[in-house]
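Example for tutorial group B:
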């Protein structure tokens, strides 16, 4: 008994400390735990006691597996940071105490927070669901959650995460895209094109480039901008180059598309059209045959001429991202 009280003291201390800690500095709001074996045992006991408020009714006889929560990080015993049922679902006093069928309309009143859609009770508002999780998981990767694309579109934590399942599909590289595709069908189609990032192969996953919780970059890219995100794997494209191709420094998306393309490698358009978005007339192009009429024996008024000659701009301008050659001004080497 004494031990439990001691452990509760530790608990209060730990969570007290957590609430004053700056959210940005810690990876999570969660405090570190350095308790000895006795304290751990007491904490485990205490958690089971708390859970029993709910598990005396919600046990292994449930249709959906509830107790498999104990196989996840939320079920680690002897860790003071581990939530009880009530940390997530709320105290739920009315739900616990009402005699069966004693609530309004003959139904047991709902728990404070109902996460499941289409369950026994109407699902709680996405903000209420999110805030419950954020009491422990604010800050860190979720620093920019508030007002970010998913938050403002009514997507809550458990629309992506499955906390009662032994394996949360969101957290494994191979299974994650399938969960994202349930809402992002266009991206699934894109990854089936000729040229793609190896997402289907399980080598690259959505969260390698995106932080779905929120970000300082556009389109939820992981880093501050698209280029920084790409450089985390394609460092050689960062330079610095003696001769920079201005457009490449500016935004990789000027020429590439991230998820998939019919033009390899991940290009937005075929050459020369890709280049001609910006380079309309190339004045003084060496030996340029830039007018259909000027092509010897060419069809009269052939249009557009660059489909015939100089088609593959990168055949010559092959250092397209930038060059370190003293004579590399035109990215020919
Ligand atoms: C980390 C937060 C968290 C904890 C701890 C937690 N739950 Fe849940 N619970 C959820 C979420 C989220 C869902 C919704 C599941 C889904 O969306 O599939 C849920 C769903 C449920 C359901 C509905 C059944 C279903 O089909 O999903 C019941 C019943 C339930 N929880 C009871 C409990 C009990 C009892 C405990 C303690 C042993 C507990 N929960 C602990 C977050 C939690
Ligand atoms: C006295 C038994 C009892 C206790 C104690 C109890 N529940 Fe329930 N709970 C039920 C019943 C029965 C239902 C199904 C509601 C219905 O069909 O009317 C339910 C439904 C739920 C649901 C919705 C399930 C779904 O499929 O949508 C959640 C979530 C839930 N309880 C969580 C809890 C939590 C958390 C606790 C502890 C704080 C708790 N319950 C304590 C009996 C209990
Ligand atoms: C009372 C505190 C608490 C609450 C509330 C809570 N969690 Fe956690 N969560 C934890 C702890 C502790 C861990 C384990 C952290 C670790 O091991 O570093 C964790 C881990 C996780 C992980 C990582 C799991 C893994 O296998 O790596 C996810 C995802 C997560 N929580 C989601 C949620 C969601 C979603 C909710 C709301 C439904 C929620 N948590 C509510 C305490 C909490
Ligand atoms: C759009 C889907 C999505 C939503 C919504 C979402 N997550 Fe995540 N979450 C992920 C993905 C993907 C990962 C794996 C990230 C990685 O591997 O870098 C993750 C990882 C985590 C982790 C473990 C790693 C870490 O960052 O500490 C926790 C904890 C977590 N999420 C909590 C939450 C909470 C709390 C919310 C709601 C406020 C939430 N998530 C909402 C997709 C989501
Ligand atoms: C439950 C549905 C749902 C799931 C699951 C989901 N998203 Fe979203 N996502 C949305 C909604 C809704 C929006 C906001 C509307 C929009 O821009 O399409 C959004 C927006 C985005 C955006 C920003 C788009 C923009 O134009 O700014 C990105 C990037 C994104 N999601 C990536 C992901 C990734 C990666 C995953 C999986 C880790 C994921 N989403 C899972 C529903 C979802
Ligand atoms: C190699 C990095 C990378 C990977 C992997 C990646 N994305 Fe993206 N994603 C981006 C970039 C960069 C943008 C912004 C594109 C732009 O601005 O034109 C983007 C944009 C988006 C958008 C906004 C709409 C759009 O198409 O512009 C959504 C939604 C999205 N990604 C979802 C996903 C999902 C789901 C996955 C996993 C299947 C995924 N992304 C994998 C880099 C990536
Ligand atoms: C997580 C690491 C990672 C990130 C981040 C990343 N890539 Fe990649 N990229 C890869 C891998 C792995 C390949 C496949 C390499 C191979 O097959 O040899 C690849 C291949 C490519 C290819 C060649 C595709 C082909 O068909 O041969 C291009 C172009 C490319 N990436 C552009 C980008 C751009 C643009 C970004 C930023 C939006 C980006 N990458 C971000 C890992 C990454
Ligand atoms: C001006 C258009 C353009 C811009 C901007 C651009 N690329 Fe490329 N990129 C290309 C072309 C064209 C190819 C194909 C080169 C070839 O076939 O020799 C290519 C090929 C690639 C490849 C695969 C072959 C290789 O060289 O490794 C990667 C990876 C790549 N680009 C990454 C990037 C990244 C990262 C950025 C942003 C820093 C970027 N690109 C910006 C036009 C561009
Ligand atoms: C988004 C616009 C854009 C695209 C697309 C683009 N470029 Fe450029 N390119 C520029 C800009 C801006 C400069 C710098 C012009 C200057 O300094 O006068 C430049 C410079 C060049 C130069 C050096 C010019 C010089 O003054 O020596 C060459 C060569 C070149 N680009 C070739 C290409 C090729 C080949 C492609 C297609 C693979 C391409 N560019 C695609 C914007 C673009
Ligand atoms: C047969 C090889 C070859 C092909 C194909 C080619 N170029 Fe060039 N390009 C050159 C050479 C050589 C120069 C001149 C380099 C110098 O003066 O240093 C040049 C110069 C340029 C310049 C700089 C012109 C200036 O005003 O200084 C641009 C821009 C350019 N090319 C764009 C393109 C585009 C766009 C395409 C495709 C439509 C293309 N090139 C196809 C060889 C080629």
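The residue assignment follows.
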């Amino acid at each position: 008994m004494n031990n439990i009280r001691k452990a509760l003291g530790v608990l209060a201390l730990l969570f007290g400390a957590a609430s004053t800690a700056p959210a940005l500095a810690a990876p999570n709001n969660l405090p570190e735990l350095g308790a000895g074996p006795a304290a751990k045992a007491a904490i485990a006991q205490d958690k089971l006691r708390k859970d029993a408020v709910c598990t005396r009714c919600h046990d292994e006889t449930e249709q959906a597996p509830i107790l498999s929560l104990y196989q996840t990080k939320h079920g680690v015993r002897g860790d003071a940071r581990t939530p009880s049922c009530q940390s997530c679902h709320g105290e739920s006093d009315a739900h616990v105490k009402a005699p069966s069928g004693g609530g309004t309309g003959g139904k047991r009143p709902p728990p404070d927070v109902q996460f499941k859609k289409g369950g026994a009770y109407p699902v709680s508002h996405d903000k209420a669901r999110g805030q419950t999780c954020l009491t422990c998981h604010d800050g860190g990767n979720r620093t920019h959650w508030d007002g970010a694309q998913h938050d403002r579109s009514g997507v809550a934590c458990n629309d992506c995460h499955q906390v009662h399942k032994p394996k949360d599909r969101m957290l494994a590289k191979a299974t994650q895209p399938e969960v994202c595709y349930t809402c992002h069908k266009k991206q699934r189609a894109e990854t089936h094109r000729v040229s793609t990032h190896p997402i289907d192969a399980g080598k690259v996953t959505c969260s390698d480039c995106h932080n779905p919780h929120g970000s300082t970059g556009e389109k939820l890219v992981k880093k501050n901008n698209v280029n920084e995100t790409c450089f985390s794997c394609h460092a050689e494209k960062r330079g610095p180059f003696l001769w920079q191709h201005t457009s490449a420094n500016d935004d990789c998306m000027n020429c590439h598309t991230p998820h998939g393309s019919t033009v390899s490698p991940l290009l937005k358009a075929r050459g020369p059209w890709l280049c001609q978005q910006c380079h309309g007339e190339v004045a003084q192009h060496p030996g340029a045959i830039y007018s259909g009429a000027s092509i010897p024996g060419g069809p009269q008024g052939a249009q557009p001429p660059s489909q015939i000659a100089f088609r593959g701009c990168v055949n010559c301008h092959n250092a397209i991202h930038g060059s370190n050659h003293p004579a590399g001004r035109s990215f020919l080497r």
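Residues 149-150, 153, 155, 159-160, 176, 179-180, 182-184, 206-207, 210, 212, 219-220 surround heme C (ligand 5) (CB under 6 Å). Compare this with the pattern of hydrophobic and polar residues in the output above.
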